[in-house]
Amino acid sequence: xxxxxxRATVGVCVSAVVLTVVGLASTAYVKSPQxxxxxxxxxxxxVLTAPVEHRVLTDTVVIRGxxxxxRTIAVSSAGPSGKESASPVVTKVxxxxxxxxEPATSLVEISGRPLFALKGALPVYRDLxxxxxxxxxxxxxxxxxxxxxxxxxDRLGTFGAGTKxxxxxxxxxxxxxxxxxxxxxxxxxxxxERAVRDMERAWQDAESGTDRERAAEDLADAREExxxxxxxxxxxxxxxxxxxxxxLPARVDAVEAAVGAAPGGTLLSVSVGELVVRGALTAxxxxxxxxxxxxxxxxxxxxxxxxxxxxxxxxxxxTPDAGAKGEDAGAVEQPAVAGTGAAGYTxxxxxxxxxxxxxxxxxxxxxxxxxxxxxxxxxVPVGAVSAGADVRTTVTVLRDAGRRERVDVRPGISGDGYxxxxxxxxxxxxxxxxxxxxxxxxxxxxxxxxxSSDVSVQLGNGEPTR
Length: 466
Description:
Elements lengths: L1 H26 L5 H8 L5 E6 L1 E3 L2 E19 L13 E4 L6 E2 L3 E6 L2 E7 L15 H13 L13 H14 L4 E2 L4 H21 L3 H24 L2 E2 L5 E4 L4 E6 L10 E16 L1 H4 L7 E5 L6 E9 L16 E5 L10 E7 L11 E10 L4 E5 L3 E3 L5 E6 L5 E12 L2 E6 L10 E7 L15 E3 L5 E2 L1
Parallel strand pairs: 7-10
Antiparallel strand pairs: 1-23, 1-24, 2-18, 3-12, 3-15, 3-17, 4-6, 5-11, 6-7, 8-9, 11-12, 12-16, 13-14, 13-17, 14-16, 18-22, 19-20, 20-21, 21-22, 24-25
């Protein structure tokens, strides 16, 4: 019995020793994947390739721009001309943002008097009164005629009887009575008429030749004074009630006037002219952009696409909100500034066709075609071209079975990450050939960092993977 127990114990011990020896031996031959990888060393690099293309190569400049009118006008007023209102106040606002401003459109009302728009390039600088002469009177007459209010037989540039009647009709159409040029003009006119009548009677009653001659002279003077009184009597157009805009219709961009507020400063801003796009170029891009270059315009917000041309490139660096607003009453043009929120050289793009009005003040993307090859050329990614110590400029072509061949080329223009190349040996490089642009870790399939949109990784089996 005891002998059997001893034998069993000995057997267990022997088995344990055998298992331990086997385990130690197996560790010399069985390895983890990490250990295998570390002992194998770094993997062989895979080759990144890109196709040789045959196309027109363009260099483009992509910037942000803002759709704006050709010119922006700040409208202001000095308040009513009359002395009856010591503290002028806005009593009505007749237009809103986005409204169209037509000729003879009332914009705001200040202390019960209108501020309206007519077409003209010369800014208002004085009240336009009967008897006045000048280019501003000529501009008023032309605007009245265009609106359908005839100035009769008045000479252009002279505020005569026909212009008075046209002004009366204009104010009647606006719904207001015109302001008299002289509040006491009617009384003075009556006195002048009475004087003429008295002088006529005196002349008729004169008997002797001397008395009759003196009466005739007095009558002539009275008639001259009456003519002068008639010339200056009648309605006027106060400088505070009119604004001339160089182009109509215009668009209301912003309204700052508010009922009950004082009319000081800018009342509203309007845009005139066809819509253009302004952008800001960096110093580096400025050298690539010239007048006449084609531009693609794209609005991400509305999906609108359009084409245009560069019409001007500023020579001086501009900053946002540059320029000052005018202080005098009427309309003052504001300097155009690129609406990109950054300093730069302002570039103006004029669309080939008018842009829709809903794009005003919206940001758009401008793709300026700065340069292009003359016809189709062979192009490769910039990273495919190398210059060696032997002064050779080459590309490396991946041939069949993974064979690499250096091909001497002459580089041309570059753009958008590509460069035009011409092989020094005819037939050495063809469209569709794959050129080496770099290497990637084995197994990479994304071609990251290659700089090409059609880069492949050439694996060990000779099959490219995208």
